[in-house]
Amino acid sequence: MSETFTSVSQEEAGLRDRVRLSFDLDVDICVIGAGLAGLSIALEAARLGASVAVLEGRHIGWNASGNQLGTVMPGFALPLTDLIERIGFEDARELWTLSKEGAELVRANATEANMPGIAPDNGVLEVSNVDAGDRLISRLQMLNEDFDTEVEGWQVDRVREVLRTDRYFHGVYYPRAFQVDGRKYVHGLAALARRAGARIFEDTPVVSIDHSGIRKRIVTPSARLRASHIVLAGNIHLGAPLRRLSETLLPVWRYAGITAPLGERVHEIIAFKGSVMDSDGVDHFRIVDGDRLMWESPETTWSARPQRFAGSVRRRIRTIFPDLGNVEVTETFGGATGQTVHGMPQIGQLRKGLWVASGFGRQGMNTSAMAGQMIARSILWGDERWKLFSPFELVWAGGATGRVAGQLVGIWGRASSAAAGSLARYRERAKVKDRQREARLAEANRAAGTGPRRPLAGVRPRPAAPPKPAAQGGQHRAEPAPHDGAASQ
Fold first, then answer.
1. How many Cβ atoms sit within 10 Å of the Cβ of residue 262?
2. What is the dihedral of CA 413, 414, 415, 419, to 10 degrees?
3. InterPro entries per the record (predicted)?
4. What is the distance between the alpha carbons of residues 274 and 20, in angstroms, rounded to a whole number?
């Protein structure tokens, strides 16, 4: 890969010259939050001709949106089978199609013409921690035939050909999925929105919101803003004015680390060029900067300094790829995503003129792009596809108790995944030993069939019959062989 995760482009550096809102302003749409979702909404609405202001309490992409691996693929945090069970096959297929469109929006944005230096790299491989061949076949059939998604099923041998570890079994390869430099993409998105006419104000927290009436009022520390529509895209960081809404999200922090250069050995052990993620959502990694490994650690519901997770990342790498040895993690980063109780994003209209776009969880790249286009077109064109998300209501996430429960569930899930993986690898080794034993027995049987006959072990040879006395007259006559061990009469 050609991208560099430690350098900052001149354009990105320019975007960090923050502009605060210091004067009263009237716009068509006010977006609160300058992450992936808020910037996607601002970009689409500005392209459609609306006047747009984005209010950000800190700076562009300061949280999870600017600190993620940049993997782009269709789907949601909620597994597809659970989505079908929840809303039915036809609606699930429509939502899946929207998620595919969101991924293509990211691809269209991340071109060299739009975002110099952010070239998409194709291919995402999802690997299983257990031997689940039967489930793999049914999933491939569903994705290919029912959801029109290009996927390939990889057998164990092929997975281990590109990933030298016994931790992974089967795989699902998404050739149309891709990855970008996620930490640069959000700044590129802001640049596109500004070029389209959107105005982005950083260091501008929202103090209060009055969403009654046709024109909504937003108060900031140094200015007031009026808008016909407000879009809440601040995720778990909406603050006191909208605490009840932010409390419908469970904050989940994920931290990642980037290793020191590993040389050619990393390509011998990890030959797959795209992103790799396991089916249990524990590990997510890819090679960057030619020979460095970027690895996302397990998640937690409590905030901490990213540097604290360097050891966790290093241990996970050593566990999965012991041939890499003890690697050095030279950089760590991370942020909090908001996860809903039901696992689907919050997209839609709360009341007339008040919209929400948050709760994207692990699938933030494609779903935030999809939400941006959908909400902008709903406001300006009357597009009502957002109603497909109506079954997924706002549900309180449980506060501090919910965070404790979420942490315990995460620990239990990782432990269950580890136990299931250990059992799968034990069964695999047992099968190998059985095949080796059968091969040795077959070889012994073949040898016994072509050489001198040897008695089977534990079976005593049958004694030979005693010789017959000679017949009278000195002549011998042949006797038939006895059938029951007694002499013939």
1. 20
2. 100
3. FAD-dep_OxRdtase, FAD/NAD-bd_sf
4. 39
pLDDT in tens, 143-181: 999 999 999 999 999 999 999 999 999 999 999 999 999
Q: Would the pLDDT of 405 be above 50? A: no
Could you give the CA distance from residue 123 to residue 250 in angstroms, rounded to a whole number? 30
Taking only Cα atoms into account, the Rg of the chain, rounded to an integer number of angstroms, comes to: 32
The class that CATH gives domain 11-119+180-249+340-397 is alpha beta
Q: How many beta carbons lie within 10 A of that of residue 172, not counting itself? A: 18
Two tokens, residue 184: 């640069």
- The tokens for 98 are 């929207």
Pick the CATH number of 121-178+251-336+398-442 from 3.90.1150.10, 2.120.10.30, 3.40.50.2300, 3.30.9.10: 3.30.9.10
Gap between the Cα atoms of 65 and 36, Å rounded: 6
- What's the pLDDT tens digit per position in 17-41? 689 999 999 999 999 999 999 999 9
If you search the block for the tokens 């390509």, which residue do you land on? Answer: 267
Are 237 and 33 in contact, with CB atoms under 8 Å apart? Answer: yes
Please report, as a single letter, which amino acid is at residue 386.
Answer: W
Domain ranges for the chain: 11-119+180-249+340-397, 121-178+251-336+398-442
Write down the pLDDT at residue 248: 83
Q: Give the Cα separation of 172 and 159 in Å (integer).
A: 9
Token pair 């991340």 is found at 110
Q: Which residue bears the tokens 């230096």?
A: 117
Q: How many CA atoms lie within 13 A of 434 on its CB side?
A: 6
- In sequence order, what E strands does 34-133 have? 52-55, 71-72, 121-127
* Position 409 pLDDT exceeds 60: no
